[in-house]
Amino acid sequence: MKRLISAIVVLVILGGGTLWVLKGDPEYDPAIVKKIKLASKVKKLKPVAESGDMEAQYQLGGYYERGEGVTLNPNAAALWYKKAAEQGHVPAQFSLAKAYESGVGIKQDFFSASKWYRLAASFGKHSEAQFNLGQMYFKGRGVDHDYGKAIKFYRQAARQGHPVAQYILGAMYEEGWGVTQDYITAYVWYKLALPRAAETIAVSRSYDPVKSLEKLKSKMNRYQIEEAEKIILKNTK
Q: CA-to-CA distance for 125 and 121, rounded, in angstroms?
C-alpha cells in the first residue's frame, strides 16, 4: 500500500484544467508536473488556434516544434506557422521562413524562405528576418546573388543592434564587398559589435570583432580612427 501511495505523484483532471500535486511525496518530480501543465495548456490552446486565432496558431506551432506538451512534430509546427503567417503574424512568418530554408517539417524551398523573410523583414521590422534575408542575398539562395541587397538588409538588422549583422557589415566595408572600401565605416560596425562579441563568435570563430578591429586599426591612420570614434560617440548618445 505504501509503495502504491508513493507512486501517485501527480493527479490531474485535464478536462477542468485542475492540477493537484502531492508535494510532500518523496518521489515528487517537478519535471512531471511541468509536462502535465504544458499538455493541459496545449489542449486548451488547440481549439482557439482552430478557430483562426493567429497568436494561438503561432504558439501551437512552437509547442509542436519544441515537442512541449505534445509529441515533437515539425510538420504540424510548419502547418500552424503557415496558418498564422498567412494572416500577417510576423514571428510566424519568420519561423515559417526558417522551416522552408532548413527543410525541417516542410519541403526545402529557398524561394519561399526568402519570400517569408522579406515579409517579416520589411513589414514587421524583424531584425533576425532582416539578417537572414541578407544572408540569402549574400549566398544567392532563393534570390539573385547580390552583395548590394545583402548590405541593405544587414544594415537594417545592424541598426537594430544585431551583432552578427554589425560584424559582417564591418567585414564588407573593410574588404569592399558590394560597397566602396571604407575603413572608417568598417571600424564603426566592428566596434558596435564588440559588446556582444560572444554572440558573433558563437556563429563563427572567425567573426571576432576584437581581433578584426585590431587588425583593421593597423591599416588606418590616426585621423581615420578619430573620425570613426566621433561617429560612434555621436550615434551612441
A: 5
Q: Which three cell numbers stand for residue 19?
A: 492540477
Q: Are residues 189 and 167 in contact, defined by beta-carbon separation less than 8 angstroms?
A: yes
Question: What is the enclosing helix (H) or strand (E) of 19?
Answer: strand 18-21
- All three cell numbers of 42, joined, read 496545449
**Residue 181 CA: distances (Å) to CA of 70, 135, 145, 166:** 52, 20, 19, 16
b/e 196-218 (16+ beta carbons within 10 angstroms → b): bbeebbeeeeebbbeebbeebee
C-alpha span between 113 and 110 (Å, rounded): 5
Identity at 84, one-letter amino acid code: A
The predicted structure's pLDDT at residue 142: 96
Q: Give the pairing of strands 10-13 and 18-21.
A: antiparallel
Confidence (pLDDT) at 6:
41
Q: What's the rounded Cα separation, in Å, for the pair 147 and 139?
A: 9
Taking the C-alpha atoms of residue 138 and residue 165, their distance in angstroms, rounded to an integer, is 12
Per-residue confidence (pLDDT) for residue 237, from 0 to 100: 67
Residue pair 55/89 in contact by the 8 Å Cβ criterion: yes
- DSSP state, residue 23: T
Residue burial 104-140, b: 16+ Cβ < 10 Å; e: rest = ebbeeebebbbbbbbbbbeebebbbbbbbbbbbbbee
User: Which H/E stretch holds residue 17?
Assistant: none
Which amino acid does the sequence have at 47?
P
Which parts of the chain register pLDDT below 50? Answer: 1-20, 22, 26
pLDDT of the residue at 95: 98
For residue 194, the tally of other CB atoms under 10 A from its CB is 15
Tell me the pTM.
0.84
